[in-house]
Amino acid sequence: MGDRLTYAMIGGGQGSFIGAVHRMAIALDGTATLAAGAFSSTPERSKASGAALGVAEDRAYGSFGELVEGERGRENPVDFVVIVTPNDAHYPAAKACLEAGLHVVCDKPFTVTSAQAAELRDLASAKRVMCAVTYNYSGYPMVRHAAELVRTGGIGAVRKVYAEYHQGWLATDLEKTGQKQAAWRTDPAKAGLGGSLGDIGTHAEQLVRFVTGLKVEQVCADLTTFVPDRRLNDDASVLLRLSDGAKGSLTCSQVCVGEANGLSLRVYGETGGIVWRQERPEELTITRLDGSKTMLSRGIEAVGPRGSMASRLPGGHPEGFIEAFANLYRGVGEAIAAKRAGRSATGLGSEVPGAEDGRLGVRFVEACLESARGDGWVAV
Amino acid sequence: MGDRLTYAMIGGGQGSFIGAVHRMAIALDGTATLAAGAFSSTPERSKASGAALGVAEDRAYGSFGELVEGERGRENPVDFVVIVTPNDAHYPAAKACLEAGLHVVCDKPFTVTSAQAAELRDLASAKRVMCAVTYNYSGYPMVRHAAELVRTGGIGAVRKVYAEYHQGWLATDLEKTGQKQAAWRTDPAKAGLGGSLGDIGTHAEQLVRFVTGLKVEQVCADLTTFVPDRRLNDDASVLLRLSDGAKGSLTCSQVCVGEANGLSLRVYGETGGIVWRQERPEELTITRLDGSKTMLSRGIEAVGPRGSMASRLPGGHPEGFIEAFANLYRGVGEAIAAKRAGRSATGLGSEVPGAEDGRLGVRFVEACLESARGDGWVAV
Amino acid sequence: MGDRLTYAMIGGGQGSFIGAVHRMAIALDGTATLAAGAFSSTPERSKASGAALGVAEDRAYGSFGELVEGERGRENPVDFVVIVTPNDAHYPAAKACLEAGLHVVCDKPFTVTSAQAAELRDLASAKRVMCAVTYNYSGYPMVRHAAELVRTGGIGAVRKVYAEYHQGWLATDLEKTGQKQAAWRTDPAKAGLGGSLGDIGTHAEQLVRFVTGLKVEQVCADLTTFVPDRRLNDDASVLLRLSDGAKGSLTCSQVCVGEANGLSLRVYGETGGIVWRQERPEELTITRLDGSKTMLSRGIEAVGPRGSMASRLPGGHPEGFIEAFANLYRGVGEAIAAKRAGRSATGLGSEVPGAEDGRLGVRFVEACLESARGDGWVAV
Amino acid sequence: MGDRLTYAMIGGGQGSFIGAVHRMAIALDGTATLAAGAFSSTPERSKASGAALGVAEDRAYGSFGELVEGERGRENPVDFVVIVTPNDAHYPAAKACLEAGLHVVCDKPFTVTSAQAAELRDLASAKRVMCAVTYNYSGYPMVRHAAELVRTGGIGAVRKVYAEYHQGWLATDLEKTGQKQAAWRTDPAKAGLGGSLGDIGTHAEQLVRFVTGLKVEQVCADLTTFVPDRRLNDDASVLLRLSDGAKGSLTCSQVCVGEANGLSLRVYGETGGIVWRQERPEELTITRLDGSKTMLSRGIEAVGPRGSMASRLPGGHPEGFIEAFANLYRGVGEAIAAKRAGRSATGLGSEVPGAEDGRLGVRFVEACLESARGDGWVAV
Fold first, then answer.
1. Cβ atoms of residues C330 and C89 within 8 Å
2. Nearest Cα to D332, choosing from D102, D32, D94?
3. Is B220 in contact with B184 (CB distance < 8 Å)?
4. Most D CBs within 10 Å, among C173, C261, C268, to test the D interface
5. In which element (H, E) is residue B218 found?
6. Residues C230 and C173 sit within 8 Å (Cβ to Cβ)
């Protein structure tokens, strides 16, 4: 355990939802130990969060700049940095870390503009460090099995894709009630211009690419702000044209009253199809030409290696959101070990979404915004 | 029983699928008795079908023209005519019947062009006869309850609609194998230009209007023919702009391998939502702001009068497709009785989709075809 | 159509639920025409019901005795008689019909005592007429496919069976409110002593035998009357020992609040299992050693001949309770035709549950009552 | 973090499944740090496991006796001991720990005989230390909400309970293949005589008590060994008589081919019912007298405090098996803190199943074994 990895966190202080999720995901498998952080926008609150989280006082920094500076000067700096701030701070924080040669794990959407994303991608490449983006839904075992199945011809050439991400939590003007999550996510200055597309649509878009291996080539989008006075869209319907002649639709919404976190993916090919729903993540349905459907579930023999290596428990013992997230971090750990050993990452380490993945998501949002302004098809 | 209604059928001879369905739906409740028909395109086959169906020889006609002529001359002509031919023959057959003052029940899509549909609508109106269109999915009790709920404010003002109709039976080139249903439905001369939109998309479009009471104002469509050599589209994705600022998407496909008859409707309003799936037609889920979902099923106390009057059995005793179809015919029976009595139709009789309903479906298809040619929004 | 079958009904007058179901099931496929009846316990009400149902006045009889007498004297008597009275009248009515050489279709539970059932069975045999018992749930196509699968080794030797029939409609003292169905079904004089076992448990018991082909050899039962003042049990839990070493449990209840008609069957063998639920009757799940599950549905290629011949519509077009019931009557029609032709019934005609089936159900109830009195295992 | 709790583990060395689960559950929330252990039955393997788990060499003990001795002699001994050995070692290990005044968390079934269990219960009480039993399924938020609902009258007085625990993993003679889990669980010397009842039935039995608050007063059981040569039962069907006149059935099986971990509970009272299934643990269905069903899910407003405090993530972000397990450990942490502070445990700390809970489970198994030998009802 002397060589267990350590990490720092930028953002994720008291009151943050997603910071705690990242920490649980890292703790679950003992992937790394939290050793430093710039948890909040003020030094006092950052130190208070650090103390509550067991971080040594001198490593609870007042800003991401101080963190990079401080860790750089230490004999044993952290092995990687997790960035979980609101969207607008991803770019400067990631840039500072990458320039200092620190591995980065950044929340999605990666950046505010695709130009920033390209810059970070190139910087990581030049510095030979990892820059991962936490598209955590691709960490579910049954998503990984779906990808294995679809990419190896299990349903024939892909024809049609239906991706949905329907939530209802912003169906009212929650941002006016002081709810912190709602406030920053509907504020263009903090969240960028993507609205529901940036917040959740990008997860669906990445799943499409992750499972099918196809590119999103063109989009035709209709964006709507249903809640009065809201400054960003809270609903989007997008037609997709994918590579190799496949077609699709992607709908995301935060005003589908009563829906909690309704992310789903359906892919139909020439000889079969797959259906996956995030709220029942352990189940994958495969449709067949003869009309029968096969239901696979995590942990059974019939699931292949990509799904199995992302699994911890026997079938029927439900794994969920944190476990899927933790699969990304197990991959991060493996990828760092591989880099140190001068070898290619294997297993989970080869499945970690990277900066180019992040850039594609940001570019997808940009293209949808362009399409919605002009009512037509836009190239991604 | 002396005054039980009688009907004639145009089309629906031996080998027809949908003709038999209409007959079972009419028989189920004893709504009417088959007394005449022009069942096939040749007099011999029409007579053979008539004989098999117990129709008197002199009322098994060789063509719809002869049927209209023959019934007109009888003391007790049939009370209504059911038209279940391929799409192209709907218009001339309906026109002949309406001109003769016969009530008409016509399969969907109503006509090939919306101009034809408008003409039939006006003709029926001028002749004061009924011209019903068998949008049979609106006959399900839980669809009717959904309409009652949504139209009376049960989910607040409607914001978003998701309509789907996904089948897989045309995922291969079935029309080349001699399968009769596939052959005419993929033949522009028989089916019109609508392809999957005309064949199944119009059902989904009607459900949207039936349940929400909103108009489909604009469409933006992407149509695809996935199976090589097929002459009509077999897949469509359509963005919808509805009246009162509501938005939606409608996807229909006949290449979703393994899906049988996946028609579904989801509607979200300001305070709730409804989810209905045709393959489990007895269930209706209502979503709520507090995140709970209520599952209603046909036959329970909690279902209101519109759903209840379309129900025959206690809850838990599944009613299905034929029963829903039969509800339309019970409505037809009631509507005819009302016309005779010089009163307005009530109950099921007031729920029968009519010619204007049929016209809207045809116009929807036309608008989607226009949009798909020009890549943009088109007014319906 | 001149040779369409005709039938008479005993019971099933105005206000009867099940009589109307039988008539719809017979009408759906045009199996037979209602030509006579003794619909109610008083001649006046019987005639009124007959008139409403289109039965000629002279064939609307005042009692089953008159009906047998009257039809016997006609040149063209009815082809079969349907008995849908409360349970206590099944035996005398069936006996009179059988003695007159009329085919009988009798509702379940067949009789009040198993001795009566054996007598009727032997009488039918001696008279060479059909005596069918309407175990209608075995008419579902997917139940028939399950039987085909299980009986031909599709899941290996059967080990364990779980049969359930859970309703909630008698959770309160509905019989005190004047509700007719509740009143007679909880009255020992009308319903026999079986209570919930006789009313619904026998359906579950028959499904066990129908699907597995095994005998119920021993039972150990606990019966309960939960609703105060009720005179019959409204809940039963029964342990089963089947032939060939299989085991099982059967629970039926009419006090499971909120459950409508929750009949289900699960059977596990050495190499697989099947799961079927009446409220979603079109679906059959098959479980496998590798942990995958296959979902079959009515109408698809993967369903074998026994299921397919009980099907009318393409997959995805839901068939329900009436259609399943109608499959029994199509079988009755075929069986009568076979008898007339002096050949063995085939197809649906070979699947009609008979008098011995009915006797086994009555004996099952008797054995459970014995067990519940003495707290131990009783041979059936 | 200086005062974070520490724990030791007895059992759970390399190759153990459940030991790793306990460690993940403790790590997830940072409840305690693993500081010592007697992980295996040989000192060498124990040390090797300790090293792999980051335990200091001098605290990786060769036996539970050494562990108790060693920790007793330290200034800062572990705060609690987790016992995850095969069943036969629970009793001696727990006794040693309790006698030394160490808090104990013991896997289920608690002991081999109920007399042992009673002794441990009394010993813990005398020593004023905690003796928890990891009935982990009661840690699910929706189980806790169900308990809150049922115990506060939400479904009226309980009438009927259906508890099931159906697995298929022992449908073949897996124990002959060298599979370690199968080997000890089917070995009477290691597992006790309970077979499937001890291994999984006790979880179902505890859920019945946990959710309803009722006692299991009498049982009538049929036990079966389906797989040839197996030395313990692999299937059980049990009729239950509960306190206050409630009735029920409990079935558990390890030969239900294709079922993974099918634990479920249904409870019906005078005015409603609840349905919960472990494989979809986030969902709880409530049935109602009017026939509607309400589906609640973890994380929504409509879930009360008992469920909410066992929840970490917003609704729709699935929590699973490890999270439920971790809720027990958060309770253990809180209970220890409460003991130190001389106050009663609150919140999760008040929900930890204890030694009496464990004893009831063992006694339930004993009563079932007695009943199965004599074919009748036995008092628990």
1. no
2. D32
3. no
4. C268
5. strand B216-224
6. yes
pLDDT digits (tens, 9 = 90+) for D75-85: 999 999 999 99
Contacts of A290 in chain C (CB under 8 A): 300-302
Residue with tokens 């519509």: C313
- Are B287 and A256 within 8 A, CB to CB? yes
Give the DSSP H or E segment for A286. strand A283-288
- Shortest alpha-carbon distance between residue D168 and chain A (Å): 11
Neighbours of chain B (3+ CB pairs under 8 A): A, C, D
Task: Answer for the pair B240, B129: CB distance below 8 angstroms, yes or no.
Answer: no
Q: Is the ipTM of this complex over 0.90?
A: yes
Minimal Cα–Cα distance from C225 to chain D, Å? 10
Which amino acid is located at D152 in the chain?
A: T
pLDDT in tens, chain B (380 residues): 346 899 999 999 987 889 999 999 999 999 999 999 999 988 999 999 999 999 999 999 999 999 999 999 999 999 999 999 999 999 999 999 999 999 999 999 999 999 999 999 999 999 999 999 999 999 999 999 999 999 999 999 999 999 999 999 999 999 999 998 999 999 999 999 999 999 999 999 999 999 999 999 999 999 999 999 999 999 999 999 999 999 999 999 999 999 999 999 999 999 999 999 999 999 999 999 999 999 999 999 889 899 999 999 999 999 999 999 999 999 999 999 999 999 999 999 999 999 999 999 999 999 999 999 987 999 99
* Closest to A333 (Cα-Cα) out of A82, A31, A23: A31
Tell me the C-alpha distance between B346 and B111, whole Å: 27
Nearest to C296 among A285, A292, A302 (CB): A292
Q: What is the pLDDT of residues C344-372, one digit of tens each?
A: 999 999 999 999 999 999 999 999 999 99
| Angle of helix C141-151 versus helix C202-212 axis, rounded to 10 | 50
If one counts every other C-beta atom within 10 angstroms of the C-beta of residue B225, the result is 16
Asked if C233 and C244 touch (Cβ cutoff 8 Å), the reply is: no
Domains of chain D as residue ranges with CATH: 5-137+327-353 (3.40.50.720), 140-311+360-379 (3.30.360.10)
Q: Which of C30, C259, C323 sits opposite B322 (nearest CB)?
A: C323
User: Residues with Cβ < 8 Å from A354, sequence gap 6 or more?
Assistant: A121, A124, A130, A131, A132, A133
B32 with C85: CB under 8 angstroms? no
User: Which residue, A305, A294, A299, is CA-closest to A318?
Assistant: A299
How far apart CA C185 and CA C189 sit, in angstroms, is 9
Interface of A with C (CB under 8 A): 285, 290-297, 299-302, 315
Q: Distances in Å between the alpha carbon of A57 and those of A3, A52, A61, A316, D1? A: 22, 11, 8, 43, 12
What Cα–Cα distance (Å) separates residue B57 from each residue in B16, B49, B50, B60, D374? 20, 10, 7, 5, 75
Alpha-carbon distance D128 to D339, whole Å?
Answer: 9
CA-nearest of C133, C109, C138 to C207 is C138
pTM to 2 decimal places: 0.97
Query: Rounded CA gap, D181 and D84, in Å?
Result: 13
φ/ψ of C32, rounded to 5, equals -160, 170
DSSP-assigned letter for residue C201 = I
Q: Where are the alpha helices (DSSP H) in B61-201?
A: 64-72, 90-99, 114-127, 141-151, 180-185, 188-191, 196
Nearest to D87 by CA among D228, D186, D213: D186
User: Is D302 within 8 Å of B315 when comparing Cβ atoms?
Assistant: no
CA distances in angstroms from B321 to A133, B140, C119, C319, D376, listed in the order given: 48, 8, 41, 6, 49
Task: Looking at the complex, report in whole angstroms how far the Cα of residue B83 sits from the nearest Cα belonging to chain A.
Answer: 31
Q: Comparing C-alpha atoms, which of A165, A9, A210, A198 is closest to residue A88?
A: A198
